[in-house]
Amino acid sequence: xxxxxxxxxxxxxxxxxxxxxxxxxxxxxxxxxxxxxxxxxxxxxxxxxxxxxxxxxxxxxxxxxxxxxxxxxxxxxxxxxxxxxxxxxxxxxxxxxxxxxxxxxxxxxxxxxxxxxxxxxxxxxxxxxxxxxxxxxxxxxxxxxxxxxxxxxxxxxxxxxxxxxxxxxxxxxxxxxxxxxxxxxxxxxxxxxxxxxxxxxxxxxxxxxxxxxxxxxxxxxxxxxxxxxxxxxxxxxxxxxxxxxxxxxxxxxxxxxxxxxxxxxxxxxxxxxxxxxxxxxxxxxxxxxxxxxxxxxxxxxxxxxxxxxxxxxxxxxxxxxxxxxxxxxxxxxxxxxxxxxxxxxxxxxxxxxxxxxxxxxxxxxxxxxxxxxxxxxxxxxxxxxxxxxxxxxxxxxxxxxxxxxxxxxxxxxxxxxxxxxxxxxxxxxxxxxxxxxxxxxxxxxxxxxxxxxxxxxxxxxxxxxxxxxxxxxxxxxxxxxxxxxxxxxxxxxxxxxxxxxxxxxxxxxxxxxxxxxxxxxxxxxxxxxxxxxxxxxxxxxxxxxxxxxxxxx
Length: 553
Hints:
Layout: H1 2-22, H2 35-38, H3 42-53, E1 65-69, E2 73-74, E3 78-79, E4 84-87, H4 90-99, H5 101-125, H6 127-138, H7 142-168, E5 174-179, E6 185-195, E7 198-202, H8 213-221, E8 225-229, H9 236-251, E9 259-261, H10 270-275, E10 280-286, H11 289-298, E11 303-307, E12 313-316, H12 322-334, E13 346-350, H13 363-378, H14 381-388, H15 394-403, E14 408-411, E15 430-435, H16 439-442, E16 450-456, H17 459-473, E17 478-481, H18 485-498, E18 502-504, H19 537-541, E19 544-552
Parallel strand pairs: 7-8, 7-10, 8-9, 10-11, 12-13, 12-17, 13-16, 15-16, 17-18
Antiparallel strand pairs: 1-4, 2-3, 5-6, 6-19, 14-15
């Protein structure tokens, strides 16, 4: 059956491998939730499947569990009430994860890749259910949840499988080695992909699938068992994921506990307990800097992949389209209420103003231009909620409310009434004016709908501050607006020094927040915001080793 799985999905695998090599556009999963694509009943059936979980016990067994936990509340204002087994006995959990690893290892790359591709296929069949689950755990608006939490997350997972396939099959299974000489030496050598051990995936609240699936599938396809530890506020998307993984694994004749769910109460601190276990050899983490650095410093027995906080930056020198720039930045600030690791925060521009196609613009006038773009994008509440989504947690609100005391409020945030969810918490972004001297404010990530317009002496100082801050604090994205080739060249050089991806003069339908699978590297691993990238060879190759045996023939 596993060979049949690989044969079934081989065309998709080959296309993904080719796209990773060419960096051209490719998508295996349609991002449009249109009935023309998925069928007339797909959306209603997916919503019904989500609704059926509410208030119910999710049908998964976690080895060593004790009791149940129910920890999720939708940012749109209601408790999900789904109950999950509470992970308790870590010894039993890890023993169960390890039990099936020998058979999974011995199955080989072809079988494992086939199983993982079949899992993606079945997750895709439940994409509307997953979209609702992501929406009501993360606060993303539905279309974004469908795209980022469904179709795009599937593409990122396929990308990690494609890279893993290339790395696992780079070395042949067997080879004949023959050394000429007075006496010819001839040997047969066997090379086997051997997993590192148990992998731990620590999920995040905002992008539970998009951020978890690349590591999950990179570890699983390379032969490792995977313990999935979801964020207590975003369990359901990963519970569905584990359910599908176990279903396919069992059907293919493997131990279903190769993938397990470890749900917890927020106070259980399960991630730190699991992370230090000697059985755990791989850890994937997305979240705050403090715990990410703790993992890097303390989980010495494991290879740790982290995506942490960073200070994403825009340098504005000049623009050929003031309106286009303001619209692009406004969309980037507003998308999912700025609750994205790729959302811009710091905007450096000269205090004396910038040159534009509409004449010189001071920082206050740039803020007004972005504010006017907010009015067009977010002026109607019913339209605004489809871009903003909901505020994911109280910490975001606290940072938003405190931001006004840190500088001059150029554009104030406002409450938005959701037309379908009366108790939803929805806010528009605020823009705060600062100066270059306010480094104590802008050098720290303010996760959420807060943007800082930072007045500098000139563009040279803007670039210097950008380079210095990102080198020390990290960033996932950077952007520049300039009509000067010389400025663009200096920004490219600064971005290389800082180790951050750069977008130049974005005016149209592409935004700095967005990252395209198979083409864009998400994170670089070259600055403090992340020590790895989605996805490259380094991200997958350290999840296994090649062990050889040899014999004379």
